[in-house]
Specification:
There is one protein chain. The protein is α+β, with helices and mostly antiparallel strands. The chain is built from 16 helices and nine strands. It has a four-stranded antiparallel beta sheet with strand order 6-7-8-9. A three-stranded mixed beta sheet has the order 2-1-3, covered by helices on one side. The protein is globular.
């Protein structure tokens, strides 16, 4: 026995599942390696599951977790490909093999959209957009990896930008881009700070402010809020690629110890508070109370719902888990290093405050009733 999966010998190679063989075929040299490994008595490879086999064969042969599908111009993890299922993967295999059936392309587009897979054309689109914003030469945007490019595509498609600029690049969006380029130290932070600036400066309280006043207001708000978020960065961590049920158990166990599920970075927390609360220019004490109430509301919501679904990322190692309650929505994110963090939390777009909450003398909800999370209607790459 030279190759085993979950303790079962792969002899002959055909004993790999149909889906596993199909996904392996997308790895250049993958089937040939498996044939060699199963016939080489001197070699010994043990994998806990087929997903691990795919991931390690890809890295071992090419030094990268991502495989290139040249015809589709798609850079993707074979683990992600395996998650598509046999039917959809067969469609991609036909397209990658050069099938010119005109009925095939709409099927490919449907799969890419449903799985939030971005082609090279999608990933390169932000470059021209950033140039139109006059920030394409900003140092923070000069080196980007796949996750950075995905974040920039997501930013381009964010409904918040659509509402602020329509079909044109406006002065306000360029202001936001300049602010983000100055404050950010990573491309993902750039996306956060741009959204933060727009979320803050498009609130009714900012009406009538000029560019300098808007920039000062955003800077002051950032300086007030960032230190408050230092205590909302702790997160649970798991090994491997857990199921939604396992993620839910990890979150429940974490919360049961009195800990909070925090954000993956302070800028991510910053933009969520700007988007989903009434915060505008409160001082330190009031801002801290509002942030505390917002974070506690998120924890209460996570403690009351089950994690049922997840969408594996294009990298094959990160995953998004949307959860909803009657009036709120949240999104948990599993990073490549196994950290489970809160990515979004806000009021459902369809939710409206109850009559009792409108007339109650108790402290108002930290969630702003007139600003539902605009990201809740936009798929996240």
């Amino acid at each position: 026995m030279s190759v085993s999966v979950a303790g079962r010998s792969l002899q002959p190679p055909g004993s790999l599942s149909d889906l596993g063989r199909l996904a392996l075929a997308f790895i250049d040299g993958g089937p040939e390696w498996l044939k060699w490994a199963t016939s080489n008595a001197a070699a010994r490879y043990d994998f806990p599951d087929e997903s691990t086999l795919l991931a390690q064969v890809q890295i071992g042969l090419h030094g990268s977790p991502l495989t290139l599908l040249p015809q589709l111009a798609l850079l993707v993890s074979p683990v992600k490909l395996q998650s598509l299922g046999h039917t959809d993967l067969m469609v991609l295999a036909k397209a990658e093999g050069g099938d010119v059936n005109p009925l095939l392309q709409p099927q490919v587009e449907r799969i890419l959209a449903a799985q939030q897979l971005l082609t090279q054309a999608d990933l390169s689109a932000p470059q021209a957009w950033l140039k139109s914003l006059e920030v394409d030469t900003a140092p923070v945007l000069q080196v980007t990896d796949l996750s950075d490019r995905i974040a920039l595509v997501r930013l381009m498609r964010d409904p918040l930008l659509a509402s602020s600029m329509g079909s044109d690049i406006t002065d306000l969006t360029q202001e936001a881009a300049r602010f983000a380029a100055q404050q950010a130290r990573t491309p993902q932070e750039f996306a956060d700070y741009l959204r933060f600036y727009l979320a803050l400066t498009t609130k009714p309280a900012a009406a009538g402010l000029g560019p300098q006043a808007r920039s000062k207001q955003a800077t002051d708000a950032m300086r007030t809020l960032l230190p408050i978020f230092f205590n909302v960065l702790d997160c649970p961590q798991v090994n491997g690629l857990p199921s939604p049920t396992e993620v839910g158990r990890a979150v429940s166990a974490w919360l049961s110890t009195g800990k909070q599920v925090g954000f993956s970075r302070v800028s991510e927390a910053l933009v969520q508070v700007a988007l989903n609360t009434r915060y505008f220019n409160e001082g330190d004490a009031d801002a801290r109370a509002l942030v505390d109430a917002y974070v506690q509301a998120a924890q209460a919501m996570l403690a009351s719902v089950q994690v049922r679904d997840g969408l594996l990322g294009q990298d094959g190692s990160s995953c998004l888990f949307p959860v909803t309650s009657a009036e709120q929505q949240a999104q948990l994110q599993l990073s490549a290093n196994g950290i489970i963090s809160l990515r979004e939390f806000g009021r459902l777009a369809s939710a409206t405050p109850s009559a009792t909450s409108a007339t109650s003398t108790s402290p108002p909800s930290p969630l702003s009733p007139d600003t539902p999370n605009p990201s809740s209607t936009e798929p996240t790459p």
